[in-house]
């Protein structure tokens, strides 16, 4: 029996409607959620990502402040601008679009954002809060993956989850979130000698390595939940993920498509984090 498709677009619409409702309630209390988005340079992909984020804010009742700078903006000037946004009570979240020009240290930039406004969840302190199980902002893509898994109605408690990939932005935080949900977690990567040995035992597989056909149907346990984080182009130029969807969907119980799976959820969880930042500020 073919796998059930986990529709990221539908779940995203549902969550964004909830954000819009909560944002409207906050706004009537004089606390409209505000997100500052900074773009440095003219990277075409970054420009598209930022445009989508700004539009998502506008559609959900979240105030967006978009600041675009030339690629020769100095690191000092960028850090000064972040400091000003940190001090602005009308801004609840700050996002600096990556990648940055080579003369700007991305680590310095991320660490300059106030923890209470780190809605991307990328700072060392945010990572520490996640590891310690403390309240904080979860990185948007793994946070969205957890919502997609949750939408299947399957409990993760006692399940075996395999994460393929160990990046700081997806793989590592994904593993921690799965652990918090009481799953037994295995992290596989380029140094794992027999990937299929691990994935065939998994009730949940999250593929996040950026390489097409990393996971095939013959590598899956029947009925598994498969979350495909990858964004690649095949030989025909068509968008595809890390999972061979055709074969995997014949074995899995649930699977996310590419596009239309994880992608829409990433920006949605950015909105959720920004809203939560504004709600915390309103309660302070």
Describe the structure.
α2 (44-59) links the parallel β2 (34-40) and β3. α2 packs across α10 (263-283). Helices cover 41% and strands 15% of the residues. The strands form 3 sheets. It has a 6-stranded parallel beta sheet. Strands 3-2-4 form a 3-stranded parallel beta sheet, with helices on both faces. The radius of gyration is 19 Å and the shape is globular. The longest helix is centred in the first third of the chain and has 21 residues, at 8-28. It contains 10 helices and 11 strands. The protein is of the alpha/beta class and 284 residues long.
Q: Structural class given helices, strands, pairing?
A: alpha/beta
Uncertain segments are none
> What fraction, in percent, of the residue positions are helical?
40-55%
In total, how many beta strands?
A: 11
Give the percentage of residues in beta strands: 15-25%
Query: How do the strands line up in the largest sheet?
Result: 1-11-8-7-5-6
Shape: globular
Largest sheet features: 6 strands, parallel
Over all CA atoms, what is the radius of gyration?
19 Å
